[in-house]
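Chain A, query sequence.
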Amino acid sequence: MSDNGNENEEGPRFQVRDKRRVSLDPEKDEKTEDTTEAGKADDTSTDQEKDVGQGPSKEDMEAAKNLADAAAKGDRPPPEADFTTFVISLASSAILHLGQAPHPETSKVETNLPMAKQVIDMLSMLKEKTKGNLEPDEGRYLEAILYDLRLRFVEASQKESKPPSN
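Chain A, predicted structure.
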């Protein structure tokens, strides 16, 4: 038996707790923090910790509604910084430069094919540099985004090269 306090006569003892943040309410987050001593059973755990697989609670639904309301007003928190978010950001920039979305500040639709090509090339370079290091879903997502942007670029190039018909 070890003297580190992690084992008792029956073997190692540990607990699994879901500590993911579900709401932006700091009071709720403080209530779910573990305040018990290590190794003791926590009978004061929240419903979220006890019933992880039973769907969202009323409080979680309210927090989701608040986030949706904040998003509708435009004052939502930034998305989680991960690979997919980074790819979406670059793809959004390419779509903007392809003239397929209005500029967020001016609301004008403008086409800038050289900039669109540069962003598509950066995504292509990112694909090559991360080859073998991406999760399968990330690799498929990046490939699908590149395919779509390349098709859109060809279409926009063809539209720009055609003279306007009278």
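The chain has two domains: 37-77, 83-161. Helices lie at 26-31, 47-50, 58-73, 83-97, 113-129, 136-161.
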